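Reopening: DUF6766 family protein still failing for me.
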Amino acid sequence: MTGALFLLSWLGQFVFQMISTSNEAQEHGQSFSWSEFLPQFLSSTFENWQSEFLQLVWQAAGLAIFYYWGSSQSRESDERMEAKLDALLRDRNLDPGSL
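Support: Ran it again with your exact input. Result attached.
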């Protein structure tokens, strides 16, 4: 399904960019040229992919760094969780240090 959506969107980019390039050529009194269109299409495709992949890698790397460092909220919640568990164990007359 994802592959089909990818191909459909890429085909859409191809068609609309071809129409735009053809209209632009006609406005300047020129004819449409595949030899000029294809490099332009591939260039814009790779620019889009580069942008998306760099964004994805940056987000994944940033999340990994934040996960590794931990945030002050996550450390605080871990300490609060331990305190609550210790309190529950004491309520049941169990020594939290022995477990």
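Residues 2-26+36-98 form one domain. If you still see a failure, please send the error message rather than a screenshot.
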